[in-house]
Amino acid sequence: MQLRALLLDAYRQLSAAKLFWVTFGISILVVVAYGSVGFNGQGISVLFGLWEIESEELREGSPWARGLYIGIFSSFLINIWLAWIATALALISTCSIFPEFVHSGSIELTIAKPIGRLKLFFAKYLVSLLFVVLQVAVFCIGVFICVGLRIGEWNPLIFSAIPIVATFFSYLFCICVLVGILTRSGITALLITGVFWMMLWSIQTSEAVLHRFVIEQEVDIERTNEGIEKSEIELVKMQAVSTEDFRIPKLEKRIETYKEDLIESQEFLDKLTQWHTPTSWVLAISPKNSQTIGLLDRWLSDPDGFDIGAIMNGDMRAFEGEEVEEFDRTTRGARERETMRRMRKEYESHSLWYVVGTSLLFEGFILGIASIYFCRKDF
Amino acid sequence: MTAIQINGVVKIYRGNVHALQGVSLEVMDGEIFGLLGPNGAGKSTLVKILMTVIHATKVSGAMLGKPIGDRLTLQDVGYLPEHHLFPYYLTGKQVLHHYGALAKVTRNDRKTRASKLLHRLGLSGWENKKVGTYSKGMLQRLGIAQSLMNDPKLLILDEPTDGVDPVGRREIRDLLAELREEGRAIFLNSHLLSELEMVCDRVAIMVKGLVRMQGTIDSLTKDSKRYEITISGAIPDWATACCDEIQNNTMIIRGDDPLVIQPMLDRLRVDNTTIISVKPVRENLEDLFMRAVDNKDTPGAAQ
Prior knowledge:
The complex is a heterodimer of chains A (379) and B (303).
Chain A: H1 2-15, H2 18-35, E1 38-39, E2 43-46, E3 51-54, H3 63-94, H4 97-101, H5 107-111, H6 117-128, H7 130-151, H8 161-183, H9 186-241, H10 247-285, H11 289-300, H12 308-313, H13 332-349, H14 352-376
Antiparallel strand pairs in A: 1-2, 2-3
Chain B: E1 2-13, E2 17-28, E3 32-36, H1 43-50, E4 58-63, E5 66-67, E6 77-80, H2 92-102, H3 107-120, H4 136-148, E7 154-158, H5 166-181, E8 185-189, H6 193-199, E9 202-207, E10 210-216, H7 217-221, E11 226-231, H8 237-242, E12 245-247, E13 250-254, H9 262-270, E14 275-281, H10 285-292
Parallel strand pairs in B: 3-8, 3-9, 6-7, 7-8
Antiparallel strand pairs in B: 1-2, 1-4, 4-5, 9-10, 11-13, 11-14, 12-13
Helix pairs in contact in B: 2-3, 3-4
C-alpha cells in the first residue's frame, strides 16, 4: 500500500513536469521517423515513401535490410537518443525529486509515518526510475511495432531496452540522489551528475583508445614475428642451396630490421600496457555505461554479422561474392580490421556480471552511502 | 492511561549544542497538553524526537505504550509539523489519500475519512484543486485533516493555528475539544499562549531544553491568586499591616480565600472609606510564561 502510494506520487510528480511530456513527445516523433523507413523490392524508402533509394543489398527481405533496421534501433536510437539525449532530459526532470523529498516541511510528513527510513529511501529511489521506464517502454512499444511491420520480425528482445536503459540511467541517478540528499539542491545534483557522466565517458573512451592501441600493437608484434619466422625459414632454405647467394645479406638485414622493430614494438606495448592496466582497473570498478548500452547491440545483432557495424565498416562485400582475406597482416586495412574484430570479440566476451554486476556494485556503494546518511540524518 | 511518558530526553547537536537537557513529561489520554516556550527552547526538537524525525542522544519512555522510536506506533499517531509543505502537484483530496496510504489506512477508510475531514475542516469544494492554489490558512486546515486521516489515538500538532484567521482558530479549537471528548490525547506545541490557555488541560513550559513548569494552569497559577482592593484616598495606617503589598491606592492580599478580606472590607466601611473595586486576580498563562522565562533566559538553545 505504501509502495503503491509512493509510485502514484512519483507518477503525479513526473506528469506535472512539462519536460516529461516534451521528452515523451520527442520520443514519439523519433519512433514515427523510425517507422517512416521501409524496404521494398527496389531498395529503401524514407519518410513513408517520400524519398526512395535503390539498393541491391538493402531491399525487402534481405538480411542487410534487417541488419540496418535493427542496427538503426540499437546503434542510433538507443546509443544516441536514449543513452544521451533522453537520459540528459530525464536527469533534468528527476534531479529535483530527492532534494524536494528531503526539503524541510515535506520530509517530516513522510518520515513520521509507519514506514522504515531504509524502505522509504529505496522505494523512493526505485519509483524515481519510473520516468525512464515509462519513456523507454512507450518507445519500445513503438519500435516493436515498427520492426514487426517493416521487416516482419516481432522481436521481444527489443523490450530488453527497458531494463538496460533504466539500469544505465540508474548509474547516473544514484550520484544525483547522493548529491541531492547531501546538498538539498537539484541544480547542484544535476551539475555534479553531469561532471560524473563526463568523467565516466572520459574513463571509458581512454580505456577504449588505449585498448585499441594495445591490440593494434599486439597484432603488429604477431605480424613482425611471423615475418621473422618466414624470413628465417627462407634464409635457411637459401643457405642450404648456396651460402654465396646475393639475397642472403639482404634477407639477414630484413630479419635484423624486423627484430629491431619487434623490440621497439614490445617496448611500446609495455608502455601502453602500463597505462592501459590501471585505466582498465578504474573502468572495472566504475559504472560501464557504454558497455551496458552495448548489451542491446550484442543481443540484437545478427549472429551472421548482418548488422549495422559491418555495414558501417564497409564489410558488405563479404556478401557480394568477393573473397575476403582471412587475416592479411601485410596490409594496414586488414590489421585495422583484425584489431577491431579482436576488440569487439573481447568486449563481447565480457560477462553480464562484469558489465552490469560491477556497475551495480558501484551503484550499490553510492546508494549505501546515501541511504546511511538518509537514515541517520536529523531532519 | 498515559499517551506519552518520557524521562530525561537529551539531544545534543553537532557543535555541542544542548537542545534538550533531560526533558521529562507526561501526557494523559483524553487531555489536551500544551507545550510552550520561547524560540529555540527545544519544543520542535522534542516533537520531532517523538515522531522519529530526529534521533535523540538519550531517550527513555513510551508513546501509546510502546518505546519511543517504535515505527508501528506511528500508525496511531497523527502529526502536523510546523511549516509543513505538501507536494504542489497534488489536490487536497490526493494529499489526504497519499499520506493516509503511507499511514497504512485502507482505501475504503481513506475515501470515507477524506471526504468527512475535508467537510469538517471547511475545505469542501476545494478537494479537487491543487494545493498550490490554497491559502496559508487552508493549507493549515488540510494539514490538520492529514493528521487525522489515520484516526489517531494521539495527535501531535506543531503550531496548528499558524496563519489561520480568528474564525478558523475558533473552529480548530472546537475541533480539538471534540477530539478530546472522543478520548484522544492531543499534544499541542504553540507559542500562542492565549490559544493554549483556552484549550489546554495541562501545560509544560520549556526553557533552554528543560521543562521549567508542568501541570494544570490552575495549579501552576495557584500561588499567584490574590485580591486587589482599590479605595479612594490614601490607604489607612491599620490596613498597611494587613496587606501583602500596596500599590498607590490598591491593597494586595495574597491567597484565594475570600473570607480573609471580609474583615478588612467591614472596617473600610466602618471608616466610611469608598471602595472602588474588589478584584480576585490570578496570573494568566502569559504571566506564568514570563515568570518562567525570566530575563536571564535569552532565546536559543544552551551551549
